Amino acid sequence: MRTVTKKEVAKRVARMMGQKIYITEDFVNSVFQVLREILSDPDEREIRIEIRDFGVFEVKETKPKPKARNPRTGEIIYVPARRKTHFKPGKLLKDYLKEPLETKKSKKKK
To answer: What distance, in Å, lies between the first and last C-alpha atoms of the chain?
Structure first.
């Protein structure tokens, strides 16, 4: 599995926009910082960030589990409600990911 870092994202944005990487690095860092702040807002229990043609980031509240079991000890424990993140891809991304792999490889070679 290949890992893409924030720096790689900034390099691609720089190439796409014809800018220097230090400019786009600040931009990319700022975008991720703002997304993180919005998703971690303590006043909002559930929140949704919709980015058209890309996808939706959501924070949803889980239900408390009064009778969960510790698999190591078998002890019954209480798990409180918490918030979790979820990403749902948009239509364009979903359609692209549904394409057969052979089609994608032949597109890359051209």
So the answer is: 24
